[in-house]
C-alpha cells in the first residue's frame, strides 16, 4: 500500500472524468505523496470488537491525537458503537462499516484508512485534513460481529425486517421519517443522531454480497448504488451519482476491481436511501465474498474507495464528475453457479 496514493492521484488526475481544471489559486498539492502503509497486523480481516478497540487506541496514540475516538451509543449487549474521526476541514464525510455483522471487510479497510490519514504527517496530509473531516462508524454492529450474523442481538425483535429470536436488520431502520423514539434499533439510532449532529455531505455504507458473474464471464468484485427512493431530492441523487462515478473509477483503475451496479430497493429505511433523503451524497459499496486468497484485494478495494472519496472531496473533483456516467456502470449479473455464499441473497444490502 506504500505507493497507493501516488497511483491513486495519478489515476484520478489522468482521467477525463476529472479533467476540469482546478480553480486558480486552489492550493492542491504539487506532487502526490504516499499516504503511507499501515503496519502489518494492525487489525485482522475479520476483527472482533476488542480488535477494533485495540487498533483504534493504537492509531489514536500513534497519530498524536489527530485521530479522535468517541462512542456514539451502545448495542443491546452494552458494546460501544465506535466513532473515529480525522481531519478538521469543512467538508464532512461519514463512512459506516459492518452494519451486518457477517460482512466484515469494510472494518479493516476503515482502520487502515484512519492510520494512513492520521499517522504520517506530510504536506499532502496537512492539505487533505484541512479540507475534509472524516467520521467513521467502525463496526456498527458489534453484537452481530461476535456472532457472525447479519442482525443485531435482540431476542425480542418483532415485525418487519426482524428475525424472531435473533434481532433486527440494522440497515432497515434508518428511516428519517420515523420518530427516533419509535426506532427499536440502537445502532441505527446512533448513526441517525450522528448524521443530525454532523450533517455530512457524503455518506458511504460498506457491505458485502455473494458472488456474481457478468455476461462476459468476468466476476463482479464489487457493486455500488446510489439512492433510489423517490423521496430522495434530485440534487442529492445527482451528487450521489457523481460519488458513484468517482468510486467506480478509483476502484476499477487503482484497485483493479470489477464494479457493477447493485440491484437495491427503494425502501427509505436502507441507509443508502435514508441519508439521500436527508440530502447527503449517499452511496452503498458491496464487496463480493471472494475466496480467502482475495480478502486482501477486497480490503484494498474498500480502502481505495474511502481514500479516493476523501481526495475527490478535498480537491473538488467530486463536484466536477459527470453524473451521467453512472449509467455506464453495468448491471450486476446472476449468481455464480456452483458457489455457495451465505451472502448470496436478493437485495441483501
Ligand atoms: Zn449488508
TrEMBL record:
<keyword id="KW-0732">Signal</keyword>
<dbReference type="InterPro" id="IPR000834">
    <property type="entry name" value="Peptidase_M14"/>
</dbReference>
<keyword id="KW-0378">Hydrolase</keyword>
<feature type="signal peptide">
    <location>
        <begin position="1"/>
        <end position="19"/>
    </location>
</feature>
<comment type="similarity">
    <text>Belongs to the peptidase M14 family.</text>
</comment>
<dbReference type="Pfam" id="PF00246">
    <property type="entry name" value="Peptidase_M14"/>
</dbReference>
<feature type="domain" description="Peptidase M14">
    <location>
        <begin position="46"/>
        <end position="313"/>
    </location>
</feature>
<feature type="active site" description="Proton donor/acceptor">
    <location>
        <position position="286"/>
    </location>
</feature>
<dbReference type="GO" id="GO:0006508">
    <property type="term" value="P:proteolysis"/>
</dbReference>
<dbReference type="GO" id="GO:0004181">
    <property type="term" value="F:metallocarboxypeptidase activity"/>
</dbReference>
<protein>
    <submittedName>
        <fullName>Carboxypeptidase</fullName>
    </submittedName>
</protein>
<keyword id="KW-0645">Protease</keyword>
<keyword id="KW-0121">Carboxypeptidase</keyword>
<dbReference type="GO" id="GO:0008270">
    <property type="term" value="F:zinc ion binding"/>
</dbReference>
